[in-house]
Write a structure and sequence with these properties.
heterodimer; A: about 220 residues; alpha/beta; Rossmann fold; 6-stranded mixed beta sheet; B: mainly alpha; MetI-like fold; nucleotide-binding (chain A); ATP hydrolysis activity (chain A)
Chain lengths: ~220, ~250
């Protein structure tokens, strides 16, 4: 039985895609307040590991996360371009709402206020009414993080959140994620391509290759 | 060799078509003076009783509008069942596809004919006929729009704990609105054209007046009705293009 506030615990995670073993017996722990980076070459299994941990891919082994379902920040934002920034963030609240109110666009006032607060936390106060398609790359990534925050999951997974950003924006996003871990107590597992950013922002660094994971 | 084979197949197909249709140029030639006589008699077009014609034109627009709206309501559940990314029951995917293909396969004219027998003469039967056929067309266009949409925001909604129905309603439908609204306008515009002939089977609209005029060989009246039909179709076409451009 998982104790409260253990963060993220993966045990014996295995995944096969198209007959190829992508993840082999992966085990790892990310404590609350900790940022752990996941590094490795393209195709090494970083995205698969995060998607399996988020419950988007059927897998072998156990995923135990505080709060049940980890929040996932997708690599290419995965925002709905025609929705506003606020509308995209509110998608993070769907798990605790019924069908009709969100479907009719009549969101509970408390959720709208929470969405605005999440936008303010990621530095986008006042931009809630702007369509996602009209935001810059860095702003979209912030909206994606705000959406994950509104999910109120104590565990946050981020798949290459700075891959498409310029160095200044990349640094700002990673500073934001580290702040969320330090101040909000989130357990964060983030895949990164750039070792120097991992060195600076992660508390621990993991490397994945050919489905195997080890600490660097 | 392969090309020759294709040409032979094509030639055989055309030969079969010609055998079935039996085009007869001498018959056309013989009928031409009659056609020309009718054409000459059609001028000037007879616009007497214009208010009646305009009421029939309005009836045509109403049949198309209500028929398309009812079709959209019928198409919505069919679309959700027949679009792979949101289909809640994969077992119903192929039956739903089959049903919408069947609805599309039977012309609104044929459905109207059946509804005239079932509910009596008039525009109501026409509206039902249009609705049933169009539901299949709209569901096909909508399900294709959903299937080709960016699935990533839907996946984000699912990963946030949302249900497939929530993801479809909150993310997918607004994202595909330009395509789905455009498809709806296109079907409406098509239905305006289709509704102009529904009267031939007693299902209301301008076609009713057209049939009466043809039966009486009153070609001046026929020409007046054809002018109104062309004006109506062009106006619907312009309006549809204008609205679709705004949606893009």
């Amino acid at each position: 039985m998982l104790e409260t506030r253990r963060g993220l615990v993966l045990r014996g995670l295995g995944l096969s895609l198209g007959g190829r073993m992508v993840l082999r017996d992966i085990s790892l722990d990310v404590a609350p307040g900790e940022v752990v980076s996941l590094e490795g070459p393209s195709g090494a299994g970083k995205t698969s590991l995060l998607r399996a941990a988020a419950g988007l891919l059927p897998h072998a082994g156990q995923v135990l996360a505080d709060g049940g379902r980890p929040a996932l920040v997708f690599q290419q934002h995965a925002l709905a371009g025609r929705l506003t920034a606020r509308g995209n963030v509110l998608v993070g609240a769907l798990g605790r709402l019924g069908f009709w109110r969100p479907a009719l666009g009549v969101w509970p006032a408390a959720e709208v206020a929470a969405a605005e607060s999440c936008l303010a936390r990621v530095g986008l106060a006042g931009l809630g009414g702007r369509r996602a398609a009209h935001l810059s790359g860095g702003q979209r990534q912030r909206v994606a993080i705000a959406r994950a925050l509104l999910q109120r999951a104590p565990v946050l997974l981020a798949d290459e959140p700075v891959a498409s950003l310029d160095p200044a924006n990349a640094e700002a996003i990673l500073t934001l994620l580290r702040g969320l871990a330090r101040e909000g107590g989130l357990a964060i597992l983030v895949s990164l391509h750039q070792p120097e950013l991992a060195r600076r922002f992660a508390d621990r660094r993991l490397r994945i290759a050919e489905g195997h994971l080890w600490e660097t | 060799m392969r090309r020759l084979l294709w040409l032979l197949v094509l030639a055989a197909f055309y030969a079969a078509c010609i055998a079935l249709v039996q085009p007869d140029l001498p018959r056309l030639w013989a009928g031409l003076p009659r056609l020309l006589r009718w054409l000459a008699g059609a001028f000037p077009p007879d616009f007497s009783g214009l208010p009646d014609l305009l009421r029939r034109a309005a009836e045509t627009v109403a049949i198309a509008t209500l028929g398309t709206s009812l079709a959209a309501l019928l198409a919505l559940p069919l679309t959700l069942l027949a679009a792979r990314p949101v289909a809640p029951l994969p077992a119903l995917y192929h039956p739903a596809r089959g049903l919408l293909d069947a609805l599309r396969g039977i012309d609104g004219f044929v459905f109207a004919l059946i509804f005239v027998a079932a509910v009596g003469l008039g525009p109501f039967a026409g509206m039902l006929g249009i609705a049933l056929h169009s539901a299949g067309s709209i569901a096909k266009l909508w399900s294709e729009a959903l299937e080709t949409a960016d699935f990533a925001p839907v996946e984000a909604a699912l990963s946030a704990g949302g249900s497939r129905a929530q993801a479809a309603a909150v993310v997918l439908l607004p994202e595909t609105l330009p395509q789905t609204a455009s498809a709806l306008l296109y079907v409406w515009e098509f239905n305006i054209r289709a509704s102009t002939v529904l009267g031939l089977v007693g299902a209301g609209g301008l076609g009713q007046e057209l049939k009466n005029a043809v039966d009486l060989l009153d070609f001046a009246r026929v020409l007046a009705i054809l002018i109104i039909i062309v004006a109506l179709v062009l106006a619907a076409d312009r309006l549809s293009v204008l609205l679709r451009r705004r949606l893009a």
